[in-house]
């Protein structure tokens, strides 16, 4: 057995380092001596017996103390393991919350962008005239255009009539001039001119 094994074994036997190993050795030696003693007086034997019981009680107390310490350390270990699991769960929850927060932030940015675009579009639309007013204005313009077209046609008709009348007048003037140049046929030509003028005006 190596030195390290001896030291490890002594530490295991000694418990928490309060001399348990030495106490057991002393108890063992006392027990062997007490068992092998034949000429010891009853008072001394009883005293040795009581001392061994006291040493045994101390050893039992040390064992109980070690057991309680081991149980306490086991309980602490379980508590640490439970706490570790709680921390791991908390870390996972925190990670999920962070991811959710990132997603919510991205969604909020998208909503804000859409809202800004909507506000700009709404402003542009609000600056445009109302559809009803636009249709009414368009209807008014169509009515005015139709009226202007009718007026134009009337003016063109009057202009054409005036052109015809002017043409007849010029023709009549030329014919009258011709009559003046030929006195003998004045009455006949005047009748013809008058008939043509009346027919042209009627047309």
TrEMBL record:
Its main location: nucleus. Transmembrane segments: none annotated. It is found in: Nucleus. Pfam families: THOC7 (PF05615). GO terms for cellular component: THO complex part of transcription export complex. It comes from the Eukaryota. Residues 138-165 form a coiled coil. InterPro entries: THOC7/Mft1. The keyword Nucleus applies. GO terms for biological process: mRNA export from nucleus; mRNA processing. Keywords: Coiled coil, Nucleus. Belongs to the THOC7 family. This is THO complex subunit 7 homolog. It comes from Parnassius mnemosyne. The lineage of its organism: Eukaryota, Metazoa, Ecdysozoa, Arthropoda, Hexapoda.
């Amino acid at each position: 057995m190596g030195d390290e094994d001896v030291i490890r074994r002594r530490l295991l036997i000694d418990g928490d380092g309060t001399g348990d190993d030495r106490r057991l050795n002393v108890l063992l030696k006392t027990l062997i001596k007490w068992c092998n003693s034949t000429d010891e007086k009853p008072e001394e034997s009883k005293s040795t017996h009581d001392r061994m019981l006291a040493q045994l009680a101390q050893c039992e107390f040390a064992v109980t103390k070690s057991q309680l310490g081991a149980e306490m350390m086991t309980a602490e270990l379980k508590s640490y393991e439970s706490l570790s699991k709680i921390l791991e769960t908390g870390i996972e929850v925190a990670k999920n919350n962070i991811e959710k927060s990132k997603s919510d932030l991205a969604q909020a940015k998208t909503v804000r962008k859409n809202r800004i675009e909507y506000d700009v579009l709404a402003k542009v639309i609000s600056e445009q005239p109302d559809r009803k007013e636009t249709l009414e204005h368009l209807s008014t313009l169509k009515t005015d255009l139709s009226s202007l077209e009718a007026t134009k046609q009337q003016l063109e008709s009057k202009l054409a009539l005036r052109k015809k009348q002017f043409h007849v007048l010029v023709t009549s003037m030329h014919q009258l001039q011709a009559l003046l140049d030929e006195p003998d046929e004045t009455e006949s030509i005047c009748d013809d001119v008058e008939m043509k003028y009346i027919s042209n005006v009627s047309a």
